[in-house]
Amino acid sequence: SHVVSLCRIKGLGETLPSLLDQLNRRQKALNDFLEAKRESFPRFYFIGDDDLLEILGQSTNPHVIQTHLKKLFAGIHEVGYDDPEICRHIISMKSQEGETVPLKTPVEIVPKVEIWLADLSREMGYTLRSLLSDCLTATEKTLNPNQFPSQILCLSESIHFTEKCELHIKNRSLKQYSGELKSQLDMYTQQDVATSQNRVLELKLKALIFDVIHHINIVEELLRADVRQTG
Fold it and tell me: Ranges for the Dynein heavy chain linker domain (predicted)?
């Protein structure tokens, strides 16, 4: 009955095509707008149109955007603010496991969300590069796992391993290096992580232990193969 009553509306046949055309043009304009936003901040390609519209519509509401951060940044579960009530600056990033990394420079939240998200992306990279540099210069005796995120500790460990392994291959002292790695493994395993109240520290040490075990296996394999040169 409703369909029949609609069909009786005068001029409906001429009006519907016009309305459909207007709808299509508005839909295209919306798609072009969203595409422009994605081009300005490519991480927006990781989320659907509905999520993107919510982010753009709540660009100055960090609490709403907080829920979408994990979709935009694989390693960021949430961020910390200088003032939880005002939320004008982002001062830290936090992983799903609870690991918090302070940013070297706070990121200001501005009206255009793609701008401050891009700033956050750059600051995240800068902070991690700076931490990696500090971690690489720290010696094994002065290295404090609490000062660096797990990602940086493992990357630094791999870089040091590569450098030392190449050096010991050239000096034909891989057996000595194998002993050094086993001593390093003992140092990590002697720490009582099972009863640690610091869950994040426990995860860091476990990651380092797995990496050192892997490195020991590589050196043992190189010894069996009697490798004497790197190139």
Answer: 2-135
* Cα–Cα distance for residue pair 182/188, rounded to 1 Å: 10
Bridge partners of residue 79, in order along the sequence: 93
Q: What is the pLDDT of residues 109-128, one digit of tens each?
A: 988 999 999 999 999 999 99
Q: Which residue, 135, 70, 76, 71, is CA-closest to 103? A: 76
Strand ranges inside the chain, DSSP E: 78-81, 89-94, 100-108
Gap between the Cα atoms of 94 and 80, Å rounded: 7
Alpha-carbon gap, residue 128 to 189, rounded angstroms: 26
Q: For residue 208, count other CB atoms closer than 10 A to its CB.
A: 23
List the 78-81 sheet strands across, edge first. Answer: 78-81, 89-94, 100-108
> How far apart, in whole angstroms, are the C-alpha atoms of residue 17 and residue 27?
15
Which pLDDT does position 83 carry in this prediction? 87
Instruction: Give the angle 44-46-50 at the CA atoms, nearest 5°.
Output: 70
- Given a contact cutoff of 8 angstroms between Cβ atoms, the answer to whether 44 and 114 are in contact is yes
Residue in the structure block whose two tokens are 């603010």: 81
Burial status of residue 140 (CB atoms within 10 A of its CB: 0-12, 13-18, 19 or more)? exposed
| 217 Rama class: left (phi>0) / alpha (psi -120 to 50) / beta | alpha
